[in-house]
Amino acid sequence: MITAYEQLRDLVERARHAPLWPSGSDALGDRARPAAVLILFGVLDSIPSHHEAQHQAVSRDLDVLLLTRATTLRSHPGQVAFPGGRIDPEDDGPVSAALREAREETGVNTSGVEVLGALDPIALPHSSHTVTPVIGWWRRQSPVGVVDEAESQAVWRAPVADLVDPANRVTWVHRRADGAMRGPAWRLTGAGAEQFVWGFTAGILDRLLAALGWAEAWDESRVVSLS
């Protein structure tokens, strides 16, 4: 049986030749602000999911590291995100930046993280960022938690089985005068509270789960309206 680790490693390799999304490297031109996020999977959690996933690679203890941004932040307050941030001049590229930001935001010991590779950057025109997702595998356990309360209100690990559970999936809709925006979302429990995962983070998770063959059919007509 192929493992989650092997599937993630193979996905990164396939994405070199068949990208999961259009590359945003040149989409924003000179105004692009490069950033990177760490998408860290592992099977080290002692709090497994109650959902029995259809795909054998998705064990009940497989999870991904997430954080909930502080509500006092000007940008995306209270939203769930991957650890990450802008690529600084002293960083040696997206991988270095993603690991540094994860260490600063969650306290994770990055010496226990195996980097499987980076995916194509994604352009976010509204913020002028081009974000490179870095896929990692958590080989050695280390404590994680909120490092700076001004930046994050929670650091938590979402069981992948909960992410593929159709009962947790909804569609977010944001209606505006010029039309409506929509996308995949999740209602989860993390850090002892209900967590709503949507936007950029949910979009990436949705694409990854589908590309890995882990996604399960869900009711996309279940809508949560955002004000």
TrEMBL record:
<keyword id="KW-0378">Hydrolase</keyword>
<dbReference type="InterPro" id="IPR045121">
    <property type="entry name" value="CoAse"/>
</dbReference>
<feature type="domain" description="Nudix hydrolase">
    <location>
        <begin position="49"/>
        <end position="181"/>
    </location>
</feature>
<dbReference type="Pfam" id="PF00293">
    <property type="entry name" value="NUDIX"/>
</dbReference>
<dbReference type="InterPro" id="IPR015797">
    <property type="entry name" value="NUDIX_hydrolase-like_dom_sf"/>
</dbReference>
<protein>
    <submittedName>
        <fullName>CoA pyrophosphatase</fullName>
    </submittedName>
</protein>
<keyword id="KW-0460">Magnesium</keyword>
<dbReference type="InterPro" id="IPR000086">
    <property type="entry name" value="NUDIX_hydrolase_dom"/>
</dbReference>
<keyword id="KW-0464">Manganese</keyword>
<keyword id="KW-0479">Metal-binding</keyword>
<dbReference type="GO" id="GO:0010945">
    <property type="term" value="F:coenzyme A diphosphatase activity"/>
</dbReference>
<dbReference type="GO" id="GO:0046872">
    <property type="term" value="F:metal ion binding"/>
</dbReference>
